[in-house]
Amino acid sequence: MNEEYRYEIKFVLSEYELLESFRFLKSINAFKPYPDRDVNSLYFDTIDFQCVKDNLSGISDRHKVRLRWYDDIDNNVFLEIKKRVGRLGSKDKYSIKNLSKRKILEYNIDEINKKVFNYFHKNYQFNNLLNEYYIPILFVNYRREYYESDIFISNEHKTDRLRVTIDKKINFRNISLNFPIKHYNEVIYNEYIMEIKFPIYMKDEVSRILKSFSLTPKRHSKYLTGMAKLGYVTYI
């Protein structure tokens, strides 16, 4: 499943700024389309950490690869290729059906890697973004709140959906190919991450709404933040 490009604007929030974000959500009559849920991501990179290098270098057109599953819904596990051009993002999503989330924590990382890419190359058309050899690098887990709001776009004379997520209780784990995911202890990250997602033509309307609040967008990557917390890179 492939998504169209859309704006994805992130905010790194302190406890005080979190209160401001709730003021913003209230002002746009945001509602919760479904309950909070736990998100798990296993990030992959090339042997020479090309995804890390592209992000740190500020390359506009870049991508990252992750395996994702959710604790409290169905048993599906997905390989996702997250693509970015500046603040625009999209995602290619592929179901990996030979891997059950109920057993994923039991496998060694190397076994997960083989299962994912053997299934992908056998069942999906070739994606040139995966023409390098990728290995698992970092595991991330967090609790996500979901909000949505219907916004009227005056210059388009129509209403469209604004989506907001707030991530909390973020933690990272180092990983090793010869051990399961939970071999290493969690490293806690105490900030909150809010992300606002909307179609490109909603930019002016969303900018107008945000001007009334003390919320400053900030470039942020959980992958790079985790790598920094574990001491692999310097990332502010």
Automatic annotation (TrEMBL):
Domain of life: Bacteria
InterPro entries for this protein: VTC_domain (IPR018966), VTC_sf (IPR042267)
Identification of the protein by name: VTC domain-containing protein
Domain VTC, chain residue ranges per copy: 6-230
Segments passing through the bilayer: none
Organism in which the protein naturally occurs: uncultured Sulfurovum sp
Pfam families with a match to the protein in the record: VTC (PF09359)
One of the GO biological process terms: polyphosphate biosynthetic process
